[in-house]
Design goal:
138 residues, mainly alpha, 7 helices, elongated, binds manganese (II) ion, transcription regulation, Fe_dep_repressor, HTH-type transcriptional regulator MntR, DNA-binding, WH-like_DNA-bd_sf
């Protein structure tokens, strides 16, 4: 099992590779706002655990296991953002809220939240009803 910190790195590495085609230690350090030496340490740990293959001068790639979990972690983050938006959470809280929640919720809960988001997206009348209820309560 990946720790919360390993999950943050895998999520970011997957995203960098999606966006740019590669993930360099310096890019990971910049986007996670940590020192490059911390990134190197973590990347070595992820290599040992079979999530990435790291070669000092050639960069790093995700193994199929790393790719699979990275994809799920990015999905989880995006789903939770969508969920908080949908229930009307103020935009300014959403990113930090998701960063706080994402490592502490079961995949079962993620699946149920996925269903709930889909339930609202399937029929705009449901979303309107929720928004109206929200306004009445204010
Ligand atoms: Mn995240």
């Amino acid at each position: 099992m990946a720790t919360a910190s390993m999950e943050d790195y895998l999520e970011r590495i997957y995203q960098l590779i999606e966006d740019k085609g590669y993930a360099r230690v310096s890019d990971i350090a910049d986007t996670l706002e940590v020192h490059p030496s911390s990134v190197t340490k973590m990347v070595q740990k992820l290599d040992k655990s079979g999530y990435v293959v790291y070669e000092k001068y050639r960069g790093l790639i995700l193994t199929s296991k790393g790719n699979k979990i990275g994809k799920r972690l990015v999905y989880r983050h995006e789903l939770l953002e969508e969920f908080l938006q949908l229930i009307g959470v103020d935009e300014s809280f959403i990113y930090q809220d998701v960063e706080g929640i994402e490592h502490h919720i079961s995949w079962d809960a993620i699946d149920r939240i996925g269903d709930l988001v889909q339930y609202f997206k399937d029929d705009p009348a449901r979303l309107n009803a929720l928004n109206n209820y929200h306004k009445e309560e204010e």
